[in-house]
Amino acid sequence: MGRLVFLFASSLLLMVAATTVSAATVEHSFYVKNLTVTRLCNRQVITAVNDSFPGPSLRVREGDKLIIHVFNMSPYKITIHWHGVFQLLSAWADGPEMITQCAIRPGNKYTYKFRIINQEGTLFWHAHSSFLRATVHGAIIIRPRVRHSYPFPKPYREVPIVLGEWWNANVVDVETQALALGVGPNLSNAYTINGWPGDLYPCSQNQMYKHRVKQGKTYLLRIINAAVSSHLFYKIANHNVTVVAVDARYTNPYVTDVMVISPGQTVDVLLTANQPVGSYYMTANNYASGSGTAVGVPFNPTTTRGVIIYQGASSSTTPLMPVVPAFNDTPTAHKFFTELTSLVGGPHWVPVPLNVDHKMFVTVGMGLDVCPPNVSCQDRPPVGAALSGNMNNVSFVLPTILSLLEAFFFNVGGVYTTDFPANPPVQFNFTNPSINADLPLLFAPKRTSITKVKFNSTVEMVLQNTALIGVENHPMHLHGFDFHVLAQGFGNFNPATDTLKYNLFNPQMRNTVSVPVAGWAVIRFVANNPGAWFMHCHFDGHNSVGLSTAFIVENGPTPETTLPPPPPDLPEC
Predict the structure, then answer these.
(1) CA–CA separation, 113 vs 96, rounded Å?
(2) Are the C-beta atoms of residues 273 and 215 closer than 8 Å to each other?
(3) Domain ranges within the chain, ordered by starting residue
(4) pTM, two decimal places
């Protein structure tokens, strides 16, 4: 075992050292401040970066070092998370508020410094404070380093497609109101493509994203779901695409005419302009996995659209419209989520670790909490209860006096406990809606309970959705790591039969897994990055009420596997 740890530490040192070869330093300044924009007939003040919505795209190569100076000129405290970036030995730059840092207060600044190591593809950055990521987000485009190539034919052009949500309201107020009433947040008013709602919405005829193509050329679309709380179907009329990567991990080529992308996920596809010269709508609409269930989950039923315009197309031609999937088309969604596989032997491919050190069975879902003081809690039965979220009957509470990472690094007691249960404290029929009549199951204690694991240990998690309050698909995001998605299915996980379904050869790798509605997913990862790492539902309305947890990964045996001290400008609480 000691030799294995030594070999891993040596390889980690070589990996970090290798990033200095043919790597560049990419430096940007982010000015976070108010921006007035017009959408859906309204002038709205939003929080944005560098006066743009979406924010600026970061274009880097694998191995580059990023230095991002964030100046908070907004009226709100804020942090920035670099979603999907490993942050190898740079956990101080990860960004989730009260997990790795305290927020940047209005009028203050913080500089994030980190390297892009062993990652290529599309990721994104976004605010990790309150609902601000609805407008504070942008693409991270990671190309191969110089003299390296893609594992597919070089595209003619690369095009970021950022899917989002729009509220005719201050998004901070949307969250504040939801917490004050003890309910879920108000539904968004529109979906957007690269910040534009499209012509199906009021006053939006000229607010539609347009992309012009040349017939016969192939384009790499880098699609990001930056929506706050919506899984989205994405289609282009009369065109198939070939998926080549998800969450900055290369996949075997997968041809499809429809994609479903959960909040926090990215998909890279090759689009060949092989249709007759003309115009073709692209659409994004909600995959509302709980909309057809006995306990319906409300959702925004609208559709955003942009348009692909071929060179030479007549401006008077009406674009063709794709057949939009039904909101509750779970078979189509499940097919897409489960049929993707990793490109074995491709750049940065990682084989599945076969020996597991830490096994966990974790329920994920919603529940209730005793109504806090000054909260009305009138809109959800039973009256007097507030909406809550939990994992294994623990509703996670963020620290308040010190970030989790600082408490770990400086060995400060009283900030967190390491007693997060590895299995559900109570066994029940997880996906049977009748459990909602069992009030003790609905109420989970609130505490800052985490899991501590040894450096370089292998963790396997069965993520089991529950039917508490309502059944829906939960996008679970893990900071600091990618994981192998070994299997996914419906109903209650059965270890006697479902372990036989594990793909141990070429499972897709992700940083965000969409746990099927009334179903389960199994993930596995190697905890080779010391620090404090958040795991949470990427529905902000669920994350903010406790559907989350965290891991602390202990330091390794060498200086090269030990988390360095915090930077001197780390914000104070």
Answers:
(1) 15
(2) yes
(3) 21-147, 149-344, 358-561
(4) 0.95
